[in-house]
TrEMBL record:
This is Flagellar P-ring protein. PANTHER family: FLAGELLAR P-RING PERIPLASMIC PROTEIN FLGI (PTHR30381), FLAGELLAR P-RING PROTEIN (PTHR30381:SF0). The gene is flgI. It comes from Ameyamaea chiangmaiensis. Pfam families: FlgI. Keywords: Bacterial flagellum, Cell projection, Cilium, Flagellum, Periplasm, Signal. The basal body constitutes a major portion of the flagellar organelle and consists of four rings (L,P,S, and M) mounted on a central rod. InterPro entries: Flag_FlgI. It is found in: Bacterial flagellum basal body. Its main location: other.
Length: 372
């Protein structure tokens, strides 16, 4: 009996230790939402074709030579010989385009995929056009799909005598289910004995948690971490498809390094929850001088010999930031403390960027600062 009680106490302490190791507000996610499976991937396709049926918004054949040559070659293949009259081509209803698509994993012959169509010449709009049969090739030069169909651009151009309004991008269109898969990319999982799981955000801690979650479900030797990005699975003696399905639904708590990302062009700042600040004092105040000119007109009295004159009136305001106080952030301050302190000082995003750079230079920002 004492031995059983001792085991129960030991188990209780282990459970408490595991619960305490995970933050209370940590969010759990499925493994398949933060990882990719080895060999299960999409492939990029590209093709060159023609869009017809435009209302005078296509390529100018006198300027876009490749559009004219493509149109002549297509008509010749259809039995229309216009080589002798090619200089007389003046149509503006045809445009040369580049067609792109992603061939998803496990796509079978006859299935359909979406395509994106983009103008390659000087066409002003592809609205209302129809893409002619266009083979789509992969990096190996083989044709994997054929695209054709009517474009949707979700854009328009309204032109008047003195103004023009353009909404969205009229030279870029989309065809839902616009391509038929002609060749498959074989992916056989039934005979796999091992499988690598690739983390989208490499991290040793996250990889270790994934391996622990898998081993708790399938056995202690099922998964092990190879590097911060890769977790290797042993599928020997198991159904690979069923095992991968169960692995993808397991919940883990991902970890992320402390990082601050700053985009100076847009004034955007993104900080993770693990960002910490050492003890630092922050003072922010800019000298702002505003000069306003409001000239006034002085009129002479009636029937006098005076002249009308412009009298200058100048107003100057100076703000030295004297009302702003020195803020103190104690050691170990969190993201919430930093944001609250910056807001109390009335600091905007632009000024906060300079403050973060200064804190990093001082060595008080315990995080990686990435400036884009």
């Amino acid at each position: 009996m004492p031995k059983v009680l001792s085991c129960l106490v030991t188990l209780l302490f282990c459970v408490v230790a595991i619960v305490a190791a995970v933050p209370a507000d940590a969010a759990q996610v499925r493994i398949k939402d933060i990882t990719d499976m080895e060999g299960v991937r999409s492939n990029q396709l590209i093709g060159y074709g023609l869009v017809v049926g435009l209302t005078g918004t296509g390529d100018r054949l006198t300027n876009t030579i490749f559009t004219r040559e493509t149109l002549i070659s297509m008509l010749n293949r259809l039995g229309v010989n216009i080589r002798a009259q090619e200089t007389q081509l003046q149509t503006h209803d045809v445009a040369a385009v580049m067609v792109t698509a992603d061939l998803p994993a496990f796509a079978h012959g006859g299935s359909r995929i979406d395509v994106t169509v983009s103008a390659a010449g000087d066409a002003s709009s592809l609205t209302g056009g129809t893409l002619l049969v266009t083979p789509l090739m992969a990096a190996d030069g083989e044709v994997y799909a054929v695209a054709q169909g009517s474009l949707v651009t979700n854009a328009f151009i309204a032109t008047g005598a003195a103004a023009t309004i353009t909404r969205n991008v009229p030279t870029n269109g989309h065809i839902a289910n616009g391509a038929i898969v002609e060749r498959e990319v074989p992916v056989d999982l039934s005979h796999r004995r091992t499988m690598s799981i690739s983390l989208r955000n490499p991290d040793f801690t996250t990889g270790t948690r994934i391996a622990m979650a898998i081993n708790r479900t399938f056995g202690s030797d099922t998964a092990h971490v190879l590097d911060p990005r890769t977790v290797m699975l042993d599928l020997a003696g198991q159904d690979p498809v069923a095992t991968l399905s169960r692995v993808g639904d397991l919940l883990v708590t991902p970890d992320a390094p402390a990082k601050v990302v700053v985009d100076e062009a847009s004034g955007t700042i993104v900080m993770g929850d693990n960002v910490r600040i050492s003890t630092v004092a922050i003072a922010q105040g800019n000298l702002t001088i505003q000069v306003t000119e409001t000239p006034e007109v002085s009129q002479p009295a009636p029937f006098s010999n005076g002249t009308t004159a412009v009298v200058p009136r100048t107003t100057i305001n100076a703000d030295t930031g004297a009302k702003r106080r020195l803020g103190l952030l104690p050691s170990g301050a969190t993201l919430r403390d930093l944001v609250r302190g910056m807001n109390a000082l009335g600091v905007g995003p632009r000024d906060m960027i300079s403050i973060l750079q200064a804190i990093k230079a001082d060595g008080s920002l315990q995080a990686d600062l990435e400036v884009r």
